[in-house]
User: Which sequence fits this backbone?
């Protein structure tokens, strides 16, 4: 009896230590600011990240050079983005400044992988949704679009540009986060963000949530955004998931008969909560700052799966920096993305002997 009691006590102690260990790794010491804090040497790290982006594009090209990330597109679709009629006053900035405004847009759905050779929709992967609003006025890249780029995981898995470069240098090895023999120096929170980002596929590109990960301005506010279906996710058993391109085929079938509806929502930073703008691995808790809808996205009934429209979409370039000043990207990773996205886009267009379309309207 005494032996059993000692075993139970030992078991409880082990559970308590394990819980403390997990809690230790889940906590964050990220500093919460409302303004950007640029560390010394970051620009050199950004240059390195841009070079690595070019290496990825060059290294994975075949007869065609795909994007360095999100190489496989499922669809390029036409959609309207309608600002809410009763949008909250504090959110009326940039493209959301006037309630009920309607924008034409292009939307690209994709897998996140870089290698088109094994871009199988059935595999675990992250998924992406990129929206390009047209004719919004001059943006920070001297174009006239506003891009919203989102992924199906709410937080990113590296904290800085230096971390990103080191992770890429390992060719995406998860062991990067658990180096050394001291488990208290392991980075299990970041590892968890990476592991959970690579999830089984949704039934359709429409039936998952997409998050900005990184922070942006919305006028005087700092925000993150999220995109989701207007309806509860469908779990139709009729969906066929037995081919490598089933996400494209599913979406094609859905848009053959009817429009699709999605919502664009924003989450405003509360600087008194653990909501840093420089560390994208930290999830802003919804119970501390709920998402608020700013617009409705209507993906039109259409036939998108034509060679012409698919190629048109592949020639488009999306970037967080295709943004009005009111939607300026902020934080370390966003600062890096400006040059990284430019380098990747320029190189693939150079290799493919293509140009970014000038006429975006439809």
Assistant:
């Amino acid at each position: 009896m005494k032996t059993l009691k000692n075993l139970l006590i030992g078991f409880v102690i082990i559970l308590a230590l394990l819980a403390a260990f997990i809690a230790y790794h889940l906590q964050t010491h990220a500093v919460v600011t409302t303004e950007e804090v640029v560390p010394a040497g970051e620009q050199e790290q950004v240059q390195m990240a841009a070079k690595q982006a070019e290496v990825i594009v060059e290294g994975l090209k075949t007869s065609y050079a795909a994007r360095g990330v999100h190489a496989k597109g499922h669809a390029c679709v036409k959609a309207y983005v309608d600002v809410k009629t009763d949008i909250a006053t504090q959110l009326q900035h940039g493209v959301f400044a006037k309630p009920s405004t309607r924008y034409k847009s292009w939307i690209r759905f994709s897998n996140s992988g870089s290698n088109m050779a094994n871009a199988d929709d059935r595999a675990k992967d992250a998924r992406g949704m990129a929206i390009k609003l047209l004719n919004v006025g001059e943006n920070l890249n001297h174009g006239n679009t506003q891009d919203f780029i989102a992924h199906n995981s709410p937080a990113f898995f590296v904290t800085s540009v230096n971390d990103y470069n080191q992770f890429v240098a390992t060719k995406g090895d998860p062991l990067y986060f658990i180096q050394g023999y001291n488990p208290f120096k392991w980075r299990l929170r970041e590892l968890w963000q990476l592991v959970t980002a690579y999830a089984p596929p949704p039934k359709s590109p429409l039936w998952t949530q997409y998050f900005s990960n990184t922070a942006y301005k919305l006028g005087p506010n700092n925000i993150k955004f999220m995109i989701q279906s207007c309806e509860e996710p469908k779990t139709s058993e009729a969906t066929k998931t037995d081919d490598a391109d089933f996400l494209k085929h599913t979406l094609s079938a859905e848009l053959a008969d009817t429009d699709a509806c999605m919502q664009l929502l924003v989450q405003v930073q509360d600087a008194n909560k653990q909501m840093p703008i420089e560390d994208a691995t930290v999830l802003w808790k919804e119970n501390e700052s709920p998402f608020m809808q700013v617009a409705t996205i209507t993906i039109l009934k259409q036939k998108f799966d034509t060679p012409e429209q698919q190629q048109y979409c592949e020639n488009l370039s999306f970037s967080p920096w295709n943004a009005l000043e009111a939607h300026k990207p902020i934080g370390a990773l966003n600062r890096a993305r400006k040059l990284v996205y430019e380098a990747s886009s320029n190189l693939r267009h150079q290799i493919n002997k293509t140009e970014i379309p000038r006429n975006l309207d439809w």
User: Anything to note?
Assistant: Strands lie at 73-83, 102-111, 127-134, 145-151, 210-211, 215-218, 221-229, 260-268, 292-299, 329-330. The first helix runs from residue 2 to 26. The radius of gyration is 22 Å.
